Amino acid sequence: MIAWWDPPAEGATNMALDEALAAEAARLDRVLVRISTWSEPTLSLGAFQAIAEARAHRALAGLRIVRRPSGGGAILHGSDVTLSVAVPRLHPCGGTPQRLYDAVHEALVAELSACGVEAGLSAGGARAGRSGIDRVDPDSGPETPQAPGPPAEGPLLCFDRRAVGDVVMPVPDGRFGSDAKILGSAQRRLRGAVLQHGSLLLAANRLVPEESRHPGLEELQRRGECGGSWAWGSPAGTGLVRGWLTRLAATLGGGLETPAGRFVPSPEAGYEEGLTRFQQDSWNARR
Amino acid sequence: MLKDVRFAKSHEWISPVAGGVATVGISAYAVEALTDLVFMQLPAVGRKVKAGESIGEIESVKAVSDLYAPVSGEIVEVNTSLPDQLETLGKDPFGAGWIVKIRPDHPAEIDALLDRAAYEALIGSQPH
Fold first, then answer.
1. Residues whose CB is less than 8 angstroms from the CB of residue A190 and which lie 6 or more positions away in sequence, other chains included
2. Which of A142, B60, B70, B127 could make a disulfide contact with B8, Cβ separation 3.0–4.6 Å?
3. What is the rounded distance in angstroms from the CA atom of residue B79 to the CA atom of residue A249?
4. In which domain, by residue range, is B96 found?
5. Domain assignment present for A149
6. Which residue does chain A place closest to B123, by CA atoms?
7. What is the spatial distance between Cα A262 and Cα B69, in angstroms, rounded to a whole number?
8. Chain A residues with CB inside 8 Å of B63's CB?
9. How high does pLDDT run on average in chain B?
């Protein structure tokens, strides 16, 4: 497994690099990983989410929006770290979606446990929104588009959803119920490779109104053996991701290589074409 | 009909040509692997496609998968009721769960695809 620690980038660049990562994983027949953050607050929509639903909420007003190639719910990036994993289709974890999902999530739970942090895998089922962002603002003006998505599509935000295998932690004050989701993932299954996006909420996102803010690691567990802040760039936050990668490499096989510098796709990976597409409304507002 | 269909390695099936048109769907294995389908996007009638080109997308709770054209040709009919009845894909993937009908440019391309035995061998070797 090869993992690159990439510098912060804006949404279209991150998405184009991730698609190129999948193309390279298929070409090289290797598991490839990119750890990334976002250079500006961005809402990433799942592949089929309605953009009008996101634009209907004041809490999300003015945010840059990019549509991911992967499915799942919207992520409000800013206090999370994104783990993009690309696995060749014939890899043992390239079969059913749950295999790769579990491999990535179980590796995080194990690393958190080693840090003295209690976390587990969700049994799924609950899909009711808890942040309130899945509901259209009751006092929104007439110019605000109404959310068109049918209720069956579930809450807008990924962290309001629960799928089997999501990483959850207990919430001391019970405000979000008995637990809070700190890692969710979604996939794009291409002919040659599976691309999985995972978002680890290191800290609550201060762009979100406090009453509907999801707690992150920082708020849920302040006293792990790793100590200190969990925010990105802190020793604990960086150490957690490093340990997570090491465990994931052991699960997926082939050891861990972390080359210096950023991920640079080969010309045949289609990065430039992807970048153009992710910058255009024809993709980002396609639904 | 099942004994006569051919399969692409990407799990689409295609029927023999009848009246110049072949029917395309996805295998029960592919539907089962995806689990909990929530959304489907289909191509437009009249679209010309090449073998291996993406002709649609299916979303499940955790994943989005592309549908690929098993052969080159023109899309002549689309199962427009399918996105509202996604359960049909799992209940009857080789019947009511058909996805598109295509007029192949080269019907012989169908013969080059996997027969049922070869496809079953393929999925038997794939990771679960």
1. A22, A26, A89, B66
2. B70
3. 43
4. 2-125
5. no
6. A95
7. 35
8. 70-71, 97, 186-189, 194
9. 91
Among B41, B64, B128, whose Cβ lies nearest the Cβ of A189? B64
Mean pLDDT of chain A: 85
CATH number of the domain bearing residue A197: 3.30.930.10
- Beta-strand runs (E) in A89-189: 120-121, 167-170, 179-189
Catalytic residue set of A: 158
Cα distance between residue A274 and residue A268, in whole Å: 12
Task: Count how many domains chain A has.
Answer: 1
Q: pTM of the entire structure?
A: 0.86
A28-81 tens-digit pLDDT: 999 999 999 999 999 999 999 989 988 888 777 788 999 999 999 999 998 999
Low-confidence ranges of chain B (pLDDT < 50): none
Q: Is the pLDDT of residue A11 over 70?
A: yes
Indicate yes or no: CB of A97 within 8 angstroms of CB of B34.
yes
Please give, rounded to a whole number of angstroms, the shortest distance from the CA of B19 to a CA of chain A.
30
| Domain CATH for B27 | 2.40.50.100
The DSSP secondary-structure symbol of A92 reads T
Indicate the number of domains in chain B: 1
Helices A235-252, A97-114: axis angle to 10 degrees equals 130
